[in-house]
Amino acid sequence: MTQSPSAAATVFSQPFWQAASEQRLIRPWCAHCQISFFPPALCCPHCLETGWTWIDSSGIGSIYSFTRVFRAPVAGFETPYVVAIVDLEPGFSLITNVLESNFDQVRIGDEVEVDWAGSMRDLPVFRRASAAGRRTS
Amino acid sequence: MTSSFPRVAIAGIGVTEQRKSLGTSTLEACLSATKMALADAGMSVHDVDGVMARWPGPGGTVLKPGSVDWAEMLGIPVRWVSDTYPQGIPAVLEAAAVIGAGLCNTVLIVGGQAGEFSGNDVAPYTRPENEFVAPWGAFTAAHFAMIAERYLHLYQVDWSRFATVAATIRNFGHLNPDALMYGRGPYSASDILDSPMVASPFRRLDLCLANEGAAAMIITSVERALDSPAPVVEVLGGGCEWFRQQYVGPARYEEVGMIGEDASRRAFSQAGLVPSDIDVAQLYDVNTFEVVRQFEALGFCGQGEGIDFVTSAGLGLDGRIPTNTDGGLMSFSHIGWGAPSLRVVEAVRQLRHAGADRQVPGAETAIAAGAGAGAQYYNVVLLGRSRANQAQS
Predict the structure, then answer these.
(1) How far is A1 from chain B (nearest CA, A)?
(2) Residue A68 and residue B142: Cβ atoms within 8 Å?
(3) Could you state, in order of their start, the residue ranges of all structural domains in chain B?
(4) What integer is the mean pLDDT of B272-285?
(5) Cα–Cα separations (whole angstroms), residue B68 to B27, B63, B90, B100
(6) Is B218 helix (H, G, I), strand (E, B) or coil?
(7) pLDDT band at B393, cuts 50/70/90?
(8) B25, B150, B249, B289: most buried by Cβ count inside 10 Å?
(9) For residue B160, what are the contacts with CB-CB under 8 A and spacing of at least 6?
(10) CA angle B134-B66-B334, nearest 5°?
(11) B121-147 pLDDT per residue, tens
(12) Smallest CA–CA separation between B246 and chain A, in Å?
């Protein structure tokens, strides 16, 4: 959150960050294998074909694991915060943040939904599904 | 039992002072360690014809391999170079392979860090830049923490039971005059559990150090090692595993939770040993959880049984498997990519019976290991006090 993530984008990831700047979450998709993979790379890691495409993610997933960080690795992160691995569609998982004011409520397996309301608006973060519901109601 | 593993030995070890800040450069620290390892092996630099290092500068070239710059600085022609990453076990095993193949005779392995830290940020290598990691404030301890949280979720183990592991290793460091944390204990499990949270479940005292220092080793044939003053310590077997590049994609427990299992099976098979034969362990204690996980992956116990194993076996000097007898990465020293060599060096000291107050009586076999599940790679080496020692004396 101290620098734009797109600063380090590669030729493979540039569409991901372009979509993120429009607050759309997209994922690599191999039509041949009928599966996603991540991070984006030259070829699908299952069939080694280079002709994969980007498609929309539902933005709905679940917390595979997480940690509550109380000491940030560099300046610019407001502690504490939650770093999580969120599983979205098969083959598509993100290291991300779960925004949650009540830390102790976060559990492995919780359903989460993408949110673009973090401190950087082109960075996908997640909220627990129930919390997201409260926010929009 | 006959093994196809080359008959090589760790003939020399050299470790500089390990400090928070050394007031010198990486290159100078590495040169000091090199001289110490050569003296320890009873060798001159002209005995070395292989170098496994990296070139930190200043001077030399920006081209690779940087190990050639080492040959230039040391004034020796060489027959083999490799910019091994990390140091420690992969370098020892590669040295064994190339010596066994006759490509060279004697390899210098050296690495470390000095003069590289700035401000209060954590060490740069603990927060590698990646577009799908760094923006969300992830760093090495967080990757390992998510592995640990998943494990605790799957096996429903009480995290407070792990604190004894950190306390035991830190108590070794408390008693080791060369350790960064010398005299800072003694520690009880509640000291660990009372330290500030960094990345749940890890508290400050669950995590390793990041500091400065260098370490070097001299690897040669067992036959040549017999000319060295210290008892010969043989490399009996080893293995490496890489699942994915470290800290790019998410590290998932179900994929990497047992990383090291395959490498250690191969290592034990080469050595003709089983885990219960091992007298002393030098594991890669980047955090408390990893020590427990590694005993599972290395075959000392079943998956999910690690905390029961370490609790009943005991990791202290009076335990069944004394572990990280110098204080490990948590309390002795962690010098970045050179740190893995420190685990091997302490194993060698124990097998030479040069462990002073922390000597495991009569230690004949040791295991040393590097990296862990959060890093998605692991390596292991088995070492033994050579039978050639008795034959010679």
Answers:
(1) 5
(2) no
(3) 8-118+209-392
(4) 98
(5) 14, 10, 19, 21
(6) strand
(7) low
(8) B289
(9) B189, B193
(10) 50
(11) 556 667 777 899 989 999 999 999 999
(12) 13
Phi-psi region of B202 (alpha: psi -120 to 50; beta: other; left: phi over 0): beta
Chain A positions in Cβ-Cβ contact with residue B200 (cut-off 8 Å):
67-68, 70
Neighbouring residues of B220: CB distance < 8 A, sequence distance ≥ 6: B8, B9, B11, B41, B47, B99, B105, B106, B107
d(CA B222, CA B203): 43
pLDDT, tens only, B219-277: 999 999 999 999 999 999 999 999 998 888 899 999 999 999 999 999 999 999 999 99
CB-based contacts of B81: which residues, under 8 Å, 6+ apart? B50, B51, B52, B65, B67, B68, B70, B71
pTM, 2 dp: 0.94
Asked whether the predicted pLDDT for residue B381 surpasses 50, the reply is: yes
Measured between alpha carbons, how far is B199 from A70 in angstroms, rounded to an integer?
A: 6
CB contacts, 8 Å: B135 with chain A? 1, 3, 5, 120, 123
Chain A residues interacting with chain B (CB cutoff of 8 angstroms): 1, 3, 5-6, 8-10, 13, 17, 38-39, 64-75, 77, 81, 83-85, 93-97, 108, 120, 123, 125
| Distance of alpha carbon B360 from alpha carbon B363, whole angstroms | 6
CA distance B22 to chain A (A): 23
C-beta separation of A50 from A42 below 8 A: yes
Model pLDDT for residues A84-95, shown as the tens digit of each residue = 999 999 999 999
Domain ranges of chain A: 9-136
Least Cα distance to A41 among B249, B18, B177, B382 occurs for: B249
- Greater pLDDT, B85 or B57: B57
Which CATH number describes the domain made up of B8-118+209-392? 3.40.47.10
Q: A122: nearest CA in chain B? A: B135
